[in-house]
């Protein structure tokens, strides 16, 4: 007996290492329940950007087939997570005089609209415009200014945008596969943060760092709003490339060694421990001190984390990390990485898992699905707003129908 079909939200992430998809149903309590998932090895995606749409199209198909067979339903309301070094972020302000009156909802809408009318490069497209906070009379920072008396209201907005052609390439590929328009597209760094952060993180402030194969995205939340985010095109592939150059080994061999021996922090007795590498095609066997191997990994990861730290310091938001740092992505599974992150940021660190989403433990507790999980949650918010809008429009339509029908009846009475 087939079960009743609920409303469906789906997510797609086209990553450098793999293509992932999730299918979730929205239960009556607005709880998300994952009913299907799939992934496939990714090829022709470099640092999060598609280099061969035809190959990626086939890989997407493999992941979707797995998920749809498991769910028993086709993917609908598809949300696409976007990444790549073409994505940029900035903070901008908009302001408006209030003339010493209490701030109204209309004032907030007006000043927010002004803040969002910022100029971005001609070849770019807006992905998100998100309010960070409001200023009352240029000095009092608040999250909700409605009802407060002010002479001037300012909104500070975090803007995320990307190169239009890159966005359209990803969007067209997914739309062509499903023969339907995307429900939404969103920044994968924002998705990862929303996927693994809980209510306490949003309230007290937390930093999400998602370390993938080709890129690392980070987003700092505080007071339920994103305060800053960014993308760095460094991931585990770059670490493997460093190992290949430093040790003069084949790249594929370095990938295997990273999985088997990788650690984010070098050990003091590394030179006493040896990695034995069998020779290939008549080559001699090699012996490499673990200290050399570990040092290359640590240097690259430390540099990556220090870049993130410096960016947050430049935007003066480091003090907002009240609840610590949440790690996700394949790179977050490297041994001792939490210790390294703690050294750099001097803050509590934990491994992320999907927050407020039901499903199999293998998915919910797997931080590599953080981006897709967050895309589902953001998509659900969009869906809820659309549903309320449709409901309001239907009620308005019904009201007009009743009014017209009353007029017809009145006319007939005459």
Brief synopsis:
Helices cover 40% and strands 30% of the residues. It is an alpha/beta fold and 414 residues long.
Describe this structure in words.
The chain is an alpha/beta fold. It contains eleven helices and 19 strands. Among the domains are: 88-164, 2-Layer Sandwich (Dna Ligase, domain 1); 198-351, Nucleotidyltransferase, domain 5, CATH 3.30.420. Strands 11-6-1-2-3-19 form a six-stranded mixed beta sheet, sandwiched between helices. A five-stranded mixed beta sheet has the order 14-13-12-17-18, sandwiched between helices. A hairpin with a 4-residue loop joins strand 12 and strand 13. The protein is globular and about 80 Å long. The model is unreliable at 404-414 (pLDDT under 50).
Which features does this protein show?
five-stranded mixed β-sheet, alpha/beta, Nucleotidyltransferase, domain 5, 414 residues, Dna Ligase, domain 1
H and E order: EEEEEHEEHEEEHEHHEEEHHEEHEHEEHH
Low-confidence stretches: 404-414
Count the strands? 19
C-alpha geometry: globular
Per DSSP, the total helix count is 11
Specify the structural class: alpha/beta
Q: Mind telling me the CATH class of one domain? A: Alpha Beta
**CATH homologous superfamily placement of one domain:** ATPase, nucleotide binding domain
Sheet with most strands: strand arrangement:
11-6-1-2-3-19
Q: How much helix, percentage-wise, in residues?
A: 40-55%
CATH architecture of one domain: 2-Layer Sandwich
Evaluate the radius of gyration. Answer: 25 Å
Proportion of strand residues = 25-35%
């Amino acid at each position: 007996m087939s079960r009743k079909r609920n409303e469906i939200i789906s997510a797609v992430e086209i990553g450098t290492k793999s293509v992932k998809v999730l299918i979730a149903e929205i239960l009556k309590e607005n709880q998300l329940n994952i009913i299907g998932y799939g992934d496939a090895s990714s090829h022709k995606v470099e640092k999060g950007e598609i280099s061969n749409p035809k190959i990626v199209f086939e890989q997407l198909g493999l992941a979707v087939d797995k998920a749809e067979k498991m769910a028993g339903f086709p993917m609908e309301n598809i949300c696409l997570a976007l990444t790549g070094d073409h994505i940029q972020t900035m903070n901008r302000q908009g302001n408006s005089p209030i003339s010493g009156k209490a701030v109204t909802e209309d004032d907030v809408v007006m000043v927010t609209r002004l803040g969002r009318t910022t100029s971005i490069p001609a070849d770019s497209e807006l992905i998100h415009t998100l309010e960070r906070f409001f200023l009352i009379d240029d000095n009092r920072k608040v999250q909700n200014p409605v009802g407060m008396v002010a002479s001037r209201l300012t909104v500070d907005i975090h803007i995320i945008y990307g190169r239009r052609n890159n966005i359209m390439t990803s969007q067209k590929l997914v739309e062509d596969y499903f023969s339907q328009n995307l429900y939404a597209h969103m920044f994968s760094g924002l998705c990862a943060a929303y996927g693994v952060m809980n209510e306490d993180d949003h309230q007290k402030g937390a930093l999400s760092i998602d370390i993938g194969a080709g890129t690392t995205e980070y987003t700092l939340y505080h007071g339920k709003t994103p305060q800053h985010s960014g993308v760095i095109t460094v991931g585990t592939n770059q670490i493997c490339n460093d190992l290949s150059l430093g040790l003069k080994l084949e790249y594929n061999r370095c990938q295997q060694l990273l999985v088997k021996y990788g650690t984010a922090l070098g050990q003091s007795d590394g030179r006493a421990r040896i990695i034995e590498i069998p020779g290939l095609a008549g080559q001699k066997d090699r012996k490499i001190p673990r200290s050399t191997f570990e040092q290359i990994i640590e240097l690259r990861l430390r540099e990556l984390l220090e870049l993130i730290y410096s960016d947050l310091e430049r935007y003066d938001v480091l003090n907002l990390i009240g609840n610590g740092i949440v790690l996700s992505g394949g790179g977050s599974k490297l041994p001792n990485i939490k210790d390294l992150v703690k050294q750099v940021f001097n803050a509590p660190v934990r491994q992320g898992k999907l927050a407020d989403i039901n499903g199999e433990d293998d998915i919910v507790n797997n931080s590599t699905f953080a981006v897709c999980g967050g895309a589902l949650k953001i998509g659900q918010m969009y869906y809820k707003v659309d549903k309320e809008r449709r409901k309001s429009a239907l009620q308005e339509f019904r009201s007009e129908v009743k009014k017209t029908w009353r007029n017809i009846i009145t006319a007939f009475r005459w």
